[in-house]
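#structure-requests
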Amino acid sequence: MKNWYFMDQWTTYFIERLSPLVTLAVIFGIATTGVILDKNLFQPFPFVVSCFTIFYIAFILRLKNDVDDYEKDCIAFPQRALPRGVLSKKDAILVLRYLEYGLIIYFAMLFIFSWGITRANTFITALYLWFLLHDFYAKQWLERRPLIKGLARHGLIIPITFLAISFGRPEYVFSAQGFSYVLLLFGAFYTFDICRKLDPYSHPVSLTYIHYYGFLITYWFTCGLLILSAIGAYGMGVHMWLWPLEICVCVTLIMLFKRPKMFRIAEMAGSLSFLAHAWAGLLQWL
């Protein structure tokens, strides 16, 4: 009974905090694009390896963030899984430690059984992820510099995307198509994360960009990210599909200047845009 209760706790946590349908849709999109980039044929094995790798990274980072933000969430978001007591912080830290051990073993196996550019990307991704999990050994310094912290956190999508490409199409890692997809996805991912945190009535302890810099600066920064995505979309030849979504995100953000209560619309637009950008490889076939 204890084991079943333990599994039920983690199932509840997974459903609530990882939004499995959206998360898996994005992961499948990135893995698929890595395999079929530039209208290449689908390969099942690289796709599966890529999906598992990205999912492992997403889960361990989600848990790490929830552990780090536990005290803040108890004040600002008491309805979340850890503050609500679905899992204890002690159990979460224990599982996080085991996941880190598993991460070392898994990436060591990837490194051993890969070669060339895939091996190099495996090492770079593992190294970046390890430093990220340990806050680059400069946690207090980063806490005082939210923009640098944000760039460091979201920068992980760059080696992850290169790794997904190298699993399926290593010859495209240093191509214009590869760099375009990385640029496209970095901008869309960062924009999505900002759009999730635009509630003007959120507790100040949550310390989002709008608390640090105000909405105007946050808006222009997000526009810069959208421009990066637009450049990447053009490089991949999918701008006719993705530019309208990027414009839509920009328009919803402008609406918030007059109607900040409509932040949920911006959140939805950012989420849909990120999902579509993840599937850019499939859009190349249309």
